[in-house]
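INFO batch 0412 | record 1 of 1 | parsing
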Amino acid sequence: MGSVSLKIGDGTARFKSATVCSSAVHILMLFSVITTNLFALYAFTYSPKPHHQIHFLTHHHTHKNISLISEQVSLILREIDSSQKKLAQMEKQLLGYESIDLSTPNMPNELKLFLQRNQLPLGKDSRTGITEMVASVGHSCYKSMDLLSQYMNYKANGACPDDWSLSQKLILRGCEPLPRRRCIASKKLNRDCAGCFDITSGNEKQRFVTSRGKNDFLIDDVLGLGSGGIRIGFDIGGGSGTFAARMAEKNVTIMTATLNIDAPSNEFIAARGIFPLYLSLDHRFPFYDNVFDIIHVGNGLDIGGQSQKLEFLMFDIERILRAGGLFWLDNFLCSNDEKRKNLTRLIERFGYKKLKWVIGEKINGSGNSEVYLSAVLQKPVRV
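INFO prediction complete | emitting tokens
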């Protein structure tokens, strides 16, 4: 390489020709400059496309992973939904909540006609939202299809079979309400049971009029405890209807709920000019809220000794009794102290006022002493 002159001040400095070592350094410097320029050129001419490609790949893989996770979640949700449906189906089968298959072989035509759904002629009702009329039948009827088919197997427009025992068996199995039938009921009071209800002599004649012990309250005394007047009432497990008959003498209308246990109680009650209501204690009372001035119940309150059923029953009694109304518990058999305590705790939950509360002993037909609870309670006014 030639020499390079550099003028400094008034003199001149001269560099000699480059040596081999300096040439290597120059080559390295030149490479560095070229490399730097190339990087600079790359920086100035950079295109974001590679970044988008990387981003696309990353996004693709991420999306793929999310899709896999979503599929797994969807699969789990489907499994959960399927399990819930299976569990609900098992629960329906255990409880009896199941629709009745009208295509079942040997199903009576009368049952099919009663249960078939009928579309409303004008479509959906704007007030109720319903689109069809559905027959009312107890959910547990599904579990007694053999008896139900037998009950609905009759001649249409003819006389109804004398099968009150069959209908009561269905009711006691939870098949309530029963389906309607297109036949004429012509059953009369059986002559063989003419002595089943003795109201001219014995205990029934003096019941509620004369006291046989401290647990027996008189109607006049109880009516004197009522506030706002006693006009209508409900007797649960009324037997022969004596309570309703005595209250009718005081111008109080009583509806009596009873079944035909070993005797045609409902027919007998009706023959006395009293309104019978044929239903079990597992049935929700078909009355509106807060309508009765007085509710009377005896041992009918003991539904199999099951505390949970007793609680449901008591809440339904509380529902139909008006504020200030009277709940008359008449000679409830306390077979053990725990049973009495459970009933007492349940009553206290409602906050009823104890107008009368008597626990006493009576001698049963076997000569043994039994404990009975009689009470008159007043429902409070709640705000």
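INFO post-check: The longest strand covers residues 321-334.
INFO record closed
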